[in-house]
Amino acid sequence: MIEVKDLIYSYVSEDGTSEEVLKNVSLNIKQGEFVAVLGHNGSGKSTFAKHLNAIFLPMGGKVYVGGIDTADESRLWDVRGKVGMVFQNPDNQIVASIVEEDVAFAPENLGIEPAEIRRRVDDALEKVGMSEYKKHSPHMLSGGQKQRVAIAGIIAMKPEIIVMDEPTAMLDPIGRREVIQTIEDLNSLYGITIVLITHNMDEAVKAQRVVVIDSGKVIMDDTARNVFKNVELLREVGLDVPQATLLAWELRKKGYNIRDDVLTVDECTEEIYKLCR
Q1: 199-203 contacts, C-beta under 8 A, 24 or more apart
Q2: Pick from 55, 163, 182, 234: most CB atoms within 10 A?
Q3: What digits encode the pLDDT tens for the residues 33-73?
């Protein structure tokens, strides 16, 4: 579904100097996968995300979406029809004064006929659990509800892939749980390919696959369970690990016989319980 080959990208400053942000990044993402991309601030993860729907174009290498070269200007709208993007701040994506009108905005601009727009809006709001709020003002909703409306607006475009660039960064814990549950449902129930850019380890645990970017390079690409085994390496590149993983790691350092692939509180609790029997 997504094929990235030797991707290079640099930011050029006003004085003409350049800083290489992505350095020969190669990555393939299959249809229906839920992939979390991790990295500390400045690692290049958000720059990578913006290449997936041609907001940025490669300065070297290639990005293909569904076999389409993102650098092919004649296919730009085909790429963006396949890949929807959700950003950190939902207020930046909400444009209407009524929820259902906001969700309808993109399909209207695509020239879709009204009856189909009505079906898409209802379907999208149902998918994100916001049907009962369709007549509400978006600006009266909580942060988590606003983000779900923003996601619904993308779903109404019927993309095959949704790229989310730290969509929970501005939300409280309740809002984060709501949005992450929505993301999981979109992937598991509806088969939408999800690329989640995040620095929240507990969110990354939900993904089928975790990619770690550091200094513009992919340094790990594996299941969450295998990636988070590498506690010391992750900490060296400025990343944390799930709290349950960290506790299990500290206990192992003290000599306790605990699995090295613990991810969740329940798994950690079970391991500690075994020690106490």
Answers
A1: 199/38, 199/39, 199/40, 199/41, 199/166, 199/239, 200/168, 200/176, 201/38, 201/228, 201/239, 201/240, 201/241, 201/242, 201/245, 202/242, 202/243, 203/36, 203/168, 203/176
A2: 163
A3: 999 999 988 899 999 999 999 999 999 999 999 999 999 99
| pLDDT tier for residue 152 given thresholds of 50, 70 and 90 | very high
pLDDT class of 249 with cuts at 50, 70, 90: very high
Mean pLDDT, all residues of the chain:
92
Instruction: Indicate the pTM of the whole model.
Output: 0.89
The first and second tokens of residue 246, run together, are: 């960290």
